[in-house]
Amino acid sequence: MSLPMPTAIDACSHTLHRWLESHPASSFFAIQASYLPGVSAVLDVAIQQGLSYSPSLLKSVLPCLIDCAAQLACPESLGERDISELEISHLRTWRGEPLHLTVSIEVAQHRCAVFSAQFSLAHDATEITSAQGTLSSRFSDDG
């Protein structure tokens, strides 16, 4: 599934709101975001009210949230892209508290961008998870 990317940098942008609502991460999280394409994205997230969750569910949805932030941070020049590599390190237990997620683009070249991500608890900035990965441009069928 390809989502059209928002173009505004404003955290209150109507386009950004629509894009976030259409991303699968919004099924699990209430998300507030700000971003600068090609540089970084910052998300403040909380689990959707009424969602029952277990520790295993919590860990399994973090990659979806990383995808959301990485897509926002990625340079627009890459066009449509997917995460091609992702490594996650869980540093501490997360029990569903609100989170602060920062994704930074470390290197962007031709058809890929390397990013790093840090999750911390919103209330005390304790880092709970770190990740790194690569976003790659989707190649067209005609080569």
Provide a descriptive summary of the structure in words.
This protein is α+β, with helices and mostly antiparallel strands and 143 residues long. It has one domain (14-137): Hotdog Thioesterase (Thiol Ester Dehydrase, Chain A). Helices cover 20% and strands 41% of the residues. The protein is built from two helices and six strands. It has helices at residues 14-22, 55-73; strands at 29-36, 40-47, 81-90, 99-109, 112-121, 127-137. Strands 1-2-4-5-6-3 form a six-stranded antiparallel beta sheet, with helices on one face. Strand 4 and strand 5 form a beta hairpin. It is globular. The relative contact order is 0.18. The model is unreliable at 1-11 (pLDDT under 50).
Give start-end ranges of low-pLDDT stretches. 1-11
User: What's the N-to-C terminus distance?
Assistant: 20 Å
Q: In terms of structural class, how would the helical and strand content be classed?
A: alpha+beta
Radius of gyration: 15 Å
Q: How much strand?
A: 35-45%
CATH third-tier fold name:
Thiol Ester Dehydrase, Chain A
Largest pleated sheet: 6 strands, antiparallel
CATH architecture: Roll
Name the CATH class. Answer: Alpha Beta
The average pLDDT value, as a whole number, equals 86
Give the number of DSSP strands.
6
SSE pattern: HEEHEEEE
Walk across the major sheet and give the strand order.
1-2-4-5-6-3
**Which word captures the global form?**
globular
